[in-house]
């Protein structure tokens, strides 16, 4: 006769025990992750504490703990400063033009490159296209100065051959935004296209084969298969780009900067730089931080709004 005995249930592990077990099991992976976490904390999260000086009359001699608290006085000063609106206008226009031209160019380039069937040509063009991304801004601006030089530049040489007047591209305010955007597109379009090329590689080839059997041309396949498949990627990249709407390349602007183009080249970042590091008097760290903090808050609101619109119209969201 077989008798059955009641099994005693094993004790349930506490969250501490589960955590220790997880740490022990994945210790090597966590060890590989540690340098990145340390870098994130030291250079991204820890500096956020310095934002408190936007609410202080900060003095480098007294430090954060010894500087007096002034509340929203610096933010009130921002709205009372008439020059701020010129800076906002210049920043928004420069960022808007950059987004308008820099965002669609990599998509178009990736779509066209995807249609190239000769492998070595496709690889060579892709490699050459993202090479400028790894060249420093100083070198790229130097190349631009050389091309646009009024005396020896290639562009002005072509203009004079057609009987046109020489243009001082780098010294005229009206040309600053065009020069900046052209340089931005030239330096980043190849690198940004990698994201879209990778998304295209994930498309099922059988879809193209079915469309081809149904008589769809290459252009129709690109328009009705490739482009719709890129919609989630495009939506995410747009959200990220909108988040940078108030962010311009400070290094590039400073290298292209001169007194004759202040009218269109002076943006929020250059203003904050002058306040904090290039001030003729005592550096205004608190006011500069307040300006930058307000810019970041507005950019965050734009990102949240774009994310909601993306969720509504493309079923894709970043967070």
UniProtKB/TrEMBL annotation:
The chain crosses the membrane at residues 28-54, 91-113, 133-159, 180-203, 223-246. GO terms for cellular component: plasma membrane. Its main location: membrane. It holds the Pfam family BPD_transp_1. It is a multi-pass membrane protein. It is found in: Cell membrane. Residues 88-306 form the ABC transmembrane type-1 domain. InterPro entries: MetI-like (IPR000515), MetI-like_sf (IPR035906), UgpAE/MalFG_permease (IPR050809). Keywords: Cell membrane, Membrane, Transmembrane, Transmembrane helix, Transport. Signal peptide: none annotated. One of its GO terms (biological process) is transmembrane transport. The keyword Glycoprotein does not apply. Belongs to the binding-protein-dependent transport system permease family. This is Multiple-sugar transport system permease YteP. It comes from Paenibacillus antibioticophila.
């Amino acid at each position: 006769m077989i008798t059955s005995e009641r099994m005693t249930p094993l004790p349930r592990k506490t969250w501490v025990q589960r955590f220790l077990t997880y740490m022990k099991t994945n210790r090597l992976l966590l060890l590989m992750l540690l340098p990145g976490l340390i870098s994130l904390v030291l250079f991204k999260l820890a500096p956020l504490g310095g934002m408190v000086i936007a609410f202080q009359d900060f003095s480098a001699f007294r430090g954060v703990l010894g500087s007096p608290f002034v509340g929203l006085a610096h933010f009130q000063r921002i709205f009372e400063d008439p020059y701020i609106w010129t800076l906002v206008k210049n920043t928004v226009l420069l960022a808007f033009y950059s987004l308008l031209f820099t965002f669609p160019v990599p998509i178009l380039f990736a779509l066209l490159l995807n249609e190239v069937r000769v492998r070595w040509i496709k690889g060579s063009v892709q490699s050459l296209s993202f090479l400028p991304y790894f060249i420093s801004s100083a070198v790229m601006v130097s190349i631009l100065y050389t091309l646009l030089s009024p005396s020896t530049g290639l562009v002005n040489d072509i203009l004079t051959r057609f009987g046109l007047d020489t243009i001082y591209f780098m010294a005229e305010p009206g040309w600053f935004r065009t020069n900046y955007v052209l340089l931005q597109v030239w330096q980043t379009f190849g690198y940004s296209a990698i994201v879209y090329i990778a998304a295209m590689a994930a498309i099922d080839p059988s879809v193209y084969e079915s469309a081809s059997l149904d008589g769809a041309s290459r252009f129709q396949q690109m328009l009705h298969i490739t482009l719709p498949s890129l919609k989630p990627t495009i939506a995410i990249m747009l959200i990220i780009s909108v988040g940078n709407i108030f962010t311009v390349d400070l290094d590039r602007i400073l290298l292209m900067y001169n007194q004759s183009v202040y009218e269109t080249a002076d943006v929020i970042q250059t203003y904050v730089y002058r306040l904090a590091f290039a001030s003729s008097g005592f550096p205004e760290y608190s006011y500069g931080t307040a300006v930058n903090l307000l810019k970041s808050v507005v950019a965050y609101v734009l990102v949240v709004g774009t994310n909601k619109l993306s969720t509504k119209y493309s079923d894709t969201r970043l967070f």
